[in-house]
Amino acid sequence: MRSFEFNGRSIAYLSDHQQPFDGSLAAAPGALELVQGVDLLIHDSQYTQPEFAAKSTWGHCTIEYAVHVAAEAGAKRLALFHHDPEHDDDTIDLLQFAAASSGSRRGLRQVVAASEGMCITLAGAPAHVSAASAVGRA
Q: Topology of domain 2-131, per CATH?
């Protein structure tokens, strides 16, 4: 877990963030403190709820949990990454759409599915997202 601030913009990166084994959405206070109010949270989002039920001890979390952490911490934008290798691009697009809808209801300005080569510019709202290369998901 890392967070950075530069030119008045902040980014936090939570990789391999273990969701509670019972599938609850309770986030560790330290994680919430790290990402509090960031402009962009880049968060592990490997599993759907049913997948997590079978892999709860594998060191990752659900997309729902990533949205919850971002919303609870008051993050402005969320980039979902560490996609499950079993998910094809169409599946990731559907999961991202559902996450964006949920995130919007919870106050997030933007939820994107990170992909290789993606660039996110944080100057202005909503953030400008572009793909420098379309070589699959990151």
A: Metallo-beta-lactamase; Chain A (3.60.15)
